[in-house]
Amino acid sequence: MAAQETAIQSNASRWKKFLREVKAELRKVTWPGKAELISFTGVVFVTVTVVAALIWVLDASFAQILKAIIK
User: Which Gene3D superfamilies does this one have (predicted)?
Assistant: First the structure.
């Protein structure tokens, strides 16, 4: 019984320590400004669009090739 209580207290203290350390690390983070955030969001959006278009073109091409082979 006493061992279980010690384990529970140990887990609780581990979580508290973990959360304190997370909070300390988040204070060290350099957060982007509004202009930087908008710029990065634009880069991500363009990159995702280009990659999606490339996958779509490749998929359509392979589908046409497969149809030609099956006929």
Answer: Preprotein translocase secy subunit
pLDDT tens, per residue, the chain with 71 residues? 555 556 566 788 888 999 999 999 999 999 999 999 999 999 999 999 999 999 999 999 999 999 999 98
Give yes or no for a contact between 32 and 40, defined as CB atoms under 8 angstroms apart: yes
pTM of the model: 0.59
Spatial CB neighbours of 40, under 8 Å, sequence gap ≥ 6: 32
Q: Which of 26, 27, 46 lies closest to 38 in space, CA to CA?
A: 46
